Amino acid sequence: MNEIKLPGYLKALVVLLLIIVIIFILVIGRGLLIPLMLGGYIAMLMIPACNWMEEKKIPRVLSAVIALLTSIAAIVGIALLVILQIRNFARDLDDVSERLNRYLADIDAFATEKFGADLGISNGMDKSQIFQIIESNSETLSNFLLNTVGSLTGVVLVPVFIFFMLIYRDHLGSFMAKFFRDKDNGLVKAKISDLRKVVQYYIIGMFKVMAILAVLNTAALYMIGVKHALFFGLFAALLNIIPYLGPFLGAILPFIFAFLTMDGLIYPFLVVICFTIIQLIESNFLTPKIVGSNVNLNALITFLGLLVGGAIWGVIGMILVIPTLAILKRIFELRDSTKPFSFLFGEEDEIEND
């Protein structure tokens, strides 16, 4: 039976419609898909621990519960550490407000003298206004953290998905293998196992890099004399999970804080210099050596993925998009018809070796 060949413009139209449908599903299903993907990636991270416990004759359900409680304890511990550090900022509010008012008065005087424009900020801001801004921003931060996982329901769904995915991981692997019946079953299951390892190595590698960055950032800020060095160092290290944008965002907050609380412009510029050196070490040594070539996406696809992920799901989309693209790249390698997309996602050195 002869295959029907569609004209090129119809193929392009079908692809465009497919992309629109996928984006529509991602936007509408945000509240379910975000917890599902988060749960899936955390479950992949906990699979080696579950396998080890099951080898010790621990039942699968019990091993899944232990792994789940361990992951929840780690997340809660990091959250409590950040919250305790944030509370310490109230002690420096007086110094920040006085210096901020001085800078505002200088800016207003400069604008009036040079351009004849009164900005109306010569009197600065009183402490109650700053408290009001912090309070409103705290509410915004709470809403942001809640919206990151979709909703309060999403927070509940994440551990539920982790638990069930750990229990049914073999069943889900067999389900995925059935989509490639034309391929050798053992080969497909090996590829699926490789997909798990890609995600595991990527997440574990990123955690190692973030831990090293937290130490380097904190040490640098401590030597410069910036208060709350531990918070700023940890915050910048956590933001490093967002490629390209994360390191820049992580350096802004300690730069502004040093500018407002320390005497002399040398200190904020020292912050910039130290963070730049640390970022060069991270991008040229730490990430290539620790994370390696497990993801192996080219910079163009990574950057486009960040833009699309951020536009659809916000910050959590920018975090989830990198391992998702890495998985898609490996899946595209299983069929000849989709290998061009794997070619598009990959690096040139990998392509030349194929």
From TrEMBL:
Q: How does it sit in the membrane?
A: Multi-pass membrane protein
Q: Which Pfam families match?
A: AI-2E_transport (PF01594)
Q: Which UniProt keywords apply?
A: Cell membrane, Membrane, Transmembrane, Transmembrane helix, Transport
**Compartments, as annotated in UniProt:** Cell membrane
The parts of the chain that form a coiled coil are none
**InterPro entries per record:** AI-2E-like
Question: Does this UniProt record's set of keywords contain NADP?
Answer: no
Which sequence ranges are marked TM in the entry? 9-28, 34-53, 65-86, 144-168, 201-224, 230-257, 264-281, 301-328
What is this protein called in UniProt? AI-2E family transporter
Species whose genome carries this gene: Negadavirga shengliensis
